[in-house]
Design a protein that fits this description.
Length: 120
């Protein structure tokens, strides 16, 4: 059974870059036909798909976040990472990493989520 675990700082200052890592166990991030994504949920709001990296390394981003988002991977560690630049308090959310067979899926498998607060 694949498991995903998010890690990273829980507090980021405005204008800085938010960096999160997802460590995957029980399955390889290079397995064919899977997409590895980042999803967030701001307080009181619904889920927002941010972007994904595919099994071959291709990346896909939400148009609204594309300018500030970068997703990469380290296949030797079976990890993928999210970087979100120029954060504001509106980026405060619970951030999830997920695996799905669809590029913009909500995650057949999802991590438990990590709270990130943007505040000075």
């Amino acid at each position: 059974q694949v498991q995903l675990q998010e890690s990273g700082p829980g507090l980021v200052k405005p204008s800085q870059t938010l960096s999160l890592t997802c460590t995957v166990s029980g399955g390889s991030i290079t397995t064919n036909n899977y997409y590895w994504s980042w999803i967030r949920q701001p307080p009181g709001k619904g889920l927002e798909w941010m972007g994904a990296i595919g099994y071959s390394g291709g990346t896909y981003y939400s148009p609204s976040l594309k300018r500030r988002t970068s997703i990469s991977r380290d296949t030797s560690k079976n990890q993928f990472t999210l970087q979100l630049s120029s954060v504001t308090p509106e980026d405060t959310a619970v951030y999830y990493c997920a695996r799905d067979v669809s590029v913009r899926g909500w995650g057949v498998n999802r991590g438990q989520g990590t709270q990130v607060t943007v505040s000075s």
